[in-house]
Please model this.
Amino acid sequence: MSTRPSLVVVGAGPRGTGFLERLAANLPELYGDRPLDVHLVDPHPPGPGRIWRTEQSPLLWMNSQAEDVTMFTDETVRLEGPVRPGPTLAEWAGIDGRAFPTRPLQGSYLRWVYERARAALPASVTVHEHRASALRVAGPREGRQRVWLEGAAAPLPADLVVLTVGHLDAEPDREQRALADFAARHGLVHLPPDFTADLARRHDPAHSADAAVFAGLLSVYAQLLRLGDRLDPGGWWHGFFGYLASGPPGPRLRQLLALSRAGIVRFLGPRVTVGTDEERGLFRASSEAVPGERTETRALVDARLPDPAPEFTGSPLLRALYEEGARASASGLLVVDPADGRVLGHDGRPHPRRFALGPHTTARTGGAFARPRTGGVAFGQNDVTARAALALLRDLECRLPAPLSA
Model:
């Protein structure tokens, strides 16, 4: 077994790529030319990962304009490490900055960012890509960790583990299981939760007031993120920002309104409830805001993100961490130390060799990428964690580990 220092990053999508970029930027100062193995674990291609995979349909768009997407730091980001500027998606692709790019184009941009970050690593660092899912992490608090991969006979040895797994699948809860069973009995279609304002003013550049409101919300939101769960323990502000400042591109909303005017799409109203009619074999949807109205259908698409509740997580890795003693918040997120992203246990102690970044944690941000010159909170988090990881790797005494066991 190799005794070279080893860092395992689980999740090589946008957040894992951002962490790798910060690792490369800080490595000369904190780690020098010491040897290091970096293992990237993800069943999907590094860079785009699953959500931004390049083979998906170009009919799928981003919700952001091309000029508002960057993976690179600038002087507005709070960093201890060096700034490494780079192009926005619009600059890299050579497209109109106000265009809403396709998801495959964003995936290609992320792949290029990954390749650039990897190329910035010195020759003393070897990157290993593992196209597999991580099943569990084991090991003593003060010793080498073991990362078990699907289909692998032996685990990966890791002096440090960084979890950047992004958005996670969820097992169906009791309500979703009941709907799925009903659909199966009656030959219906049921798609459970998964990942796949004023219209005229929101997308009119002439209305600078809208832009000002968005920028103001973004600034406040960034400050709340820096303060952590102390001011937003239930995630209310996170949802409020998403409600007011996020949403589909303007052209998509216009298309939806056109479908509505043509009678193809009907809006059910707020606070929709879905029931079943066992005798007729149909789904039935209604809204308390429209008394007496209901819609009956043979297909139900639950177009929302899965809830992150620990008991329903679809990730074997996260499930194993919770069973071992990792702490979950009331809203179902993995609790991490806001200082550097170390995973916290039920006793409140940070694990010295396990870190986590991304939407599955309490160190939430607006996303793995950011608008240029807005402080990029995720970039700052990546920088802090990368520096903590490099400092720990540098200071570890390299000694032969004990033989691995289950």
Notes: The two ends are 16 Å apart (CA to CA).
